[in-house]
Design brief:
Helices cover about 35% and strands about 25% of the residues. It has about 170 residues and is of the alpha/beta class. The longest helix has 17 residues.
């Protein structure tokens, strides 16, 4: 088959048009870190989740099921372990424990990771971790009633994009 000059011009124009339409989107961040406070808890020392908390933990798993989570971290308390468990079970991932009393060491560990990470903590530690990672923690979490925050930090080099989402039954001040 012999191509004419006109056919070659059309082919070149089509190739340029196709190349212009298939430009890649923004680059994937080095890591995306999802941070939540544990779900609703019972009373007592090291309490388990309430039925509402167990439902919220399952909703967290449903929410992040397609997020590509590669690592899950939790403090070593029943309420945080139980919040992380549904997603860990679904993804067949271990839950690694971190020491909330040493946030700088934990932030250093998180900064050495890549991919997508879930961190389950507490009302008095999660916003601090968000801030230490370069995100926007927002106002203080209402310890008695606010369980619906889902922080999403997209980190590329020194750039941090911070987003606050809500999931499950909304917090009613």
């Amino acid at each position: 088959m012999r191509l004419t000059r006109r056919s070659l011009m059309r082919l070149a124009a089509g190739t340029l048009l196709l190349a212009a339409c298939t430009r890649p989107g923004p680059p994937e961040p080095d890591r995306t870190i999802y941070l939540v406070r544990h779900a609703e808890k019972q009373a007592g020392d090291d309490p388990s989740l309430t039925p509402e908390g167990a439902a919220r933990a399952q909703l967290l798993a449903d929410t992040l099921a397609d997020a590509g989570i590669a690592h899950i971290y939790s403090t070593d308390y029943a309420r945080t372990r139980e919040t992380a468990a549904p997603l860990a079970d679904f993804m067949s991932l271990p839950v690694y424990f971190y020491d909330a009393s040493d946030p700088l060491s934990f932030v250093s560990e998180l900064n050495s990771q890549s991919g997508r990470i879930l961190v389950v903590g507490h009302s008095n530690t999660t916003p601090d971790l968000v801030g230490l990672l370069g995100g926007e923690p927002g106002v203080e979490i209402n310890e008695a009633a606010e369980y619906d925050r889902l922080y999403v930090l997209r980190i590329s080099g020194d750039t941090v994009e911070s987003e606050l989402r809500r999931y499950g039954a909304p917090y009613q001040p």
